[in-house]
Amino acid sequence: MRDQPLDGCRVLVVEDEFLIADELCMVLRDAGADVIGPVGHIEAALAHAADAEPIDAAVLDLNLAGVPAYPVADVLAR
C-alpha cells in the first residue's frame, strides 16, 4: 500500500448536510485521514475543536442550519 497524502492527519468535518458530510468523510478517509465527525451542530463542533487531541485540519460549513460556525474557526486557530 502506498502512502496517502493525509496519512496520520486528524481532520475535523463540520457539515450539517448528511450527503455532503458523508462524501467529504469518504474522500478524506480514502486519502488516509483520521476523520473526526462529521458533526452538524455548533455545540458538538466547538467541543471537538476544544478537545485536547490535536486537529491538523478542518473542513467547516460556515452556516450550520442558520448558525454561523466562525466561533469554531476561532477556537481551531488558537
Structure description:
The chain is α/β, with parallel strands linked by helices and 78 residues long. α2 packs parallel to α3. It has helices spanning 18-30, 42-50, 70-77; strands at residues 10-14, 34-39, 57-60, 63-64, 67-68.
Could you give the topology of this structure?
Blueprint: E1 10-14, H1 18-30, E2 34-39, H2 42-50, E3 57-60, E4 63-64, E5 67-68, H3 70-77
Helix pairs in contact: 2-3
Order of helices and strands: EHEHEEEH
CA(first)-CA(last) distance: 35 Å
Q: Could you report the average pLDDT, rounded to the nearest whole number?
A: 93
Q: If you compute it from the alpha carbons, what radius of gyration comes out, rounded to the nearest whole angstrom? A: 12 Å
Strand order of the largest sheet: 2-1-3
Overall outline: globular
Structural class: alpha/beta
Note the beta-strand portion. 15-25%
SS element count, helices: 3
Which key phrases capture this entry?
single chain, 78 residues, three-stranded parallel beta sheet, two-stranded antiparallel ribbon, 5 strands, globular
